[in-house]
Amino acid sequence: MWYSEIHYLCTNRCEHDMKRSITLLLLLLAGVVSSARAREVFPINEGWRFFFKSERTSDNARHVTLPHSWNTDPLAQGYWLETTGNYQNGMYIPAEWASKRLFVKFYGVQSVADVFVNGSLVGTHRGGGTAFVFEITDKIRFGTDNSLLVMVNNSWRDDVLPTSTDMNLYGGIYREAELIVTESTAISPLYLGSEGVLVHPRNVSFERVDGEIEVHLTSKTESSCSLDISITAPDGRQVFEKRQKTKIEDKPLMIPFSVEAPELWSPDYPALYTVTAAIGEDSITDRVVVRTGFRSIAASPEKGLEINGLRTPLHGVVLHHDNALSGGTLGPKDYDDDLREIHDIGANALRSAVMPHAQYLYDRCDEQGLLVWIDSPLHRSSFLSDMAYFATPAFEQNGLQQLQEIIAQNINHPSVIMWGIFSQLWMRGDDVTPYLRRLNDTAHTMDASRPTVACSDQDGAVNFVTDLIVWKQDVGWQRGSTDDVTVWRDQLQKNWSYLRSGVQYGEPGFLGHKSYTAQDEPRSNWLPEDRQTRFHEEYARNLQNDSLFWGVWIENLFDYGSARRPYGVNGSGLITLNRREKKDAFYLYRAMWNRNDPTLHIVDKRQRMRDGDKQLFRVYSSAGLPVLTVGADTLVMSEYAPCQYRTDSVALKGVVEVKAAAGDLRDSVTIRIGNVLKPKRTPGLRRTAGRQTTN
């Protein structure tokens, strides 16, 4: 409330008149606050001054607004920076708040944050994907100005996960921040960066939901308080209420609850309940409101993944953490735009790669019925020089801490249906299996309602730790033929059918890379879109409708920034990093997955200059058999695979207009067929990048 006024409370004011007006405003607000006596939350996104540590002084600090990253700042001048940056701000805290408690909350700082108030360290947080909270009450000078300094470092460290990734870790305070003001006794903001209220459904059916609500309390003056818990149904009816006197202890309070005849959350019916926790005797002194939903999740080799007892095959896309304009500082509009693309392709699930996204994304997934897999940052990239696991106490504790934060902060989201434990670890060097079991047990202890999952491209014991396993497959990319994936699938069916298996695949393709004949095609870092397209066509033909897999995941929906790769981009997305161009493979999955809006798409439309006397044409259609006319001729099309149609090779020359029609849909392209200039070979194009490899 009063956000436009409170904005001024959280920025440094040196002028006497300004401070006087703010003090008057605070006195007015203090009267309201003292009567309501509930917590207040003030955004502190404005008024920051930023400078690099290497500058040694803040004299030339730049004024920035959160979210902010120095890697998308003009100061970076196109260079990728792994360094340390300082963020300074000021807060005038009124004397009337001397009896209250103050907390600062940061929703995402990449990757290590040291927070100082008035020159005193209040805490350090290691890990860029999760929120964190520090209490600053004891460091505050009430009735005057206070300084806030956050030192941020995004350099590589062997004690902060991920230690191996080709995804850019955009340094900075790249999500929002806020000041939380409470009374002495409050629902704790300090529990793993969560809201302090966690809902645990234990038994879920259409007849009844039984569970517990976990509440974390904190007080500096009292040993007990009155706690009210209520649950409100999607239609506004109150379906549960409980009031009790409770002790305030170091352990959380567990409140049993039951809801009769619940409206269960599902992709088709995303019903959301509101859970309110409030404390106070005669009046409310603190209140926290969270949303959640009730649904059951089960998985078996025979029935696949079931939501509320209904088999739900997952058609998922992997989502990384940037775009060309915002970098890593994604905001609501960025997420809304990306969600529109997810719905347009027809996916019903997304995987948050490497680490969690912002809470805003999962709130929208709750509302829209999208299913979510959130990764923990125990991840290995494809670079041979990397080590993903360090057998040290500091590394293992950091991985455990980040997993606990991920679960605590996202447990109330019904859209989140699985916790990712690791991704693509190698079975070499130190044995990582005992640590994986520890992580897996931690996830089950904190949340028994969801399965754990891992993505693996290796054999060995790591594949038997989590409840679900997703096989990262790339047969036919660097070796063999894409048809060899059927051999792998058959072996999996024969020997490992008892595993609850999903599959993930994807390879890069760049729009500006033209495909040439085998003897003329450049070898180094030359990744034409056509090669990516054919990879996806064959994998879709062989794997998409196989009941062996509870889910199929496409890696990735969007290209993402990778300073470690030759072009600064990982091009494995179905859509470009700037979101302007959809690659051919996007339309392949749209044709197969989107049942609401039909698709008709001529493949290779960007290749308008073609060599070779013989040409064949491919069309993706979910509107039935397409009619294809090339010039004045109508060509016969046959169905090669679901939604994939092809012609035989035909002799053509000169400028030709190609038109496709299916139902009410139309698509067309004009091409020129003849001799096309090929690039000259150069030694640079023949070299292989030493840093890059594939699995």
Task: Enumerate how many helices there are, as a single number.
Answer: 10
Radius of gyration: 28 Å
Number of domains: 3
**CATH-scheme architecture of the largest domain:** Alpha-Beta Barrel
Helix content: 10-25%
What can you see in these coordinates?
The chain is of the alpha+beta class and 695 residues long. The model is unreliable at 1-36 and 681-695 (pLDDT under 50). The chain folds into 3 domains: 3-186, Sandwich (Jelly Rolls); 197-297, Immunoglobulins (Immunoglobulin-like, Sandwich); 312-593, Glycosidases (TIM Barrel), CATH 3.20.20. The protein has an 8-stranded parallel β-barrel with strand order 23-24-25-26-27-28-29-30, surrounded by 4 helices. The protein has a 6-stranded antiparallel β-sheet with strand order 3-2-4-9-6-7, with no helix packed on it.
What are the main properties of this structure?
695 residues; alpha+beta; Jelly Rolls; Immunoglobulin-like; TIM Barrel; 8-stranded parallel beta barrel; 6-stranded antiparallel β-sheet; 10 helices; 43 strands; 18% helix; globular; disordered C terminus
